[in-house]
Amino acid sequence: xxxxxxxTDWLVRGGLRPTRQRVALAALLVGDGENRHVTAESLFxxxxxxxxxxxxxxxxxxxxxxxxxGLMQEVVVDGSKSYFDTRMDDHPHFYWExxxxxxxxxxxxxxxxxxxxxxxxxxxxxxxVVIRLRRR
Length: 136
Known about the structure:
Blueprint: H1 3-13, H2 20-30, E1 37-38, H3 40-49, H4 56-68, E2 73-77, E3 81-85, E4 93-96, E5 101-104, E6 130-133
Parallel strand pairs: 4-6
Antiparallel strand pairs: 1-3, 2-3, 4-5
Helix pairs in contact: 1-2, 3-4
């Protein structure tokens, strides 16, 4: 299966129409079958280095559409820096401060013993765990 075919299948699974730009971005994200952590800027740079012409605004909008379709999840670091993760199961992340890079952390080593009770009328939707690392 080619990267474009894998990207198209991924879009269809999310209920999204496979436009030329969406397929090109999806192929970069999931075309090799591996999970990715990207920023809009890093995905845009990958497009620029390839043959696909898209604007940074289109990349942002498309990543949001992929998240809304349940194909990706957004991981916010520092309240302003967003990474987009193609791995959809609940899992923790390492944020490498010196490199501004996000990677998966081993979920089997994380134990959350207790969460606070959600306020009345609400429920906990998910818990994001980002473990910040820096070199000594």
